[in-house]
Fold this sequence. Notes:
Elements: H1 2-18, E1 30-37, E2 56-60, E3 113-117, E4 141-146, E5 149-155
Amino acid sequence: MKSTLGAGLALLAWSWVAFPVEPAVLPLDGSWRVALDPQDQGLAGAWFADTLPGSAIMPLPGTTDQAGLGPPLDLATMSHPVAPPRVFWPSAPETERADEAGALVRPRLYLGRAWYQRDFNVPDAWQHRFVTLTLERVLWSSAAWIDGRPLGTSDSLVAPHE
Length: 162
């Protein structure tokens, strides 16, 4: 009995090495609904329970400024002043605008809560299986819901949120 069990365990271990099982993945990249929430109304308004109010469509992966969302970044909307470009680049033309001086400047900047939403179908074969949602490049914290039910939260600047 012991030799049979040992041979069975060895065969099972060999099969894991010889035939590794790739985890099933459901890509969620593509078009998402997004609603900016600068007044922090989404949680109290239960935005997670229905289609986002006043939502725009944007591609993910991507950023809100790439999608043209948020206020334009200019001298009037900057949250902190930027030193004149001539301090860092003496040959820059005389201007107050960093982009005109050759610096890279984001066209828009939004820092605050944003709600993202997408419809998708979970394969029938995944019923009763453990599934992980992974979010990358989240700015500080995230919370996730499916069909209005909370899944969990995460808080990190250096690691994917799961």
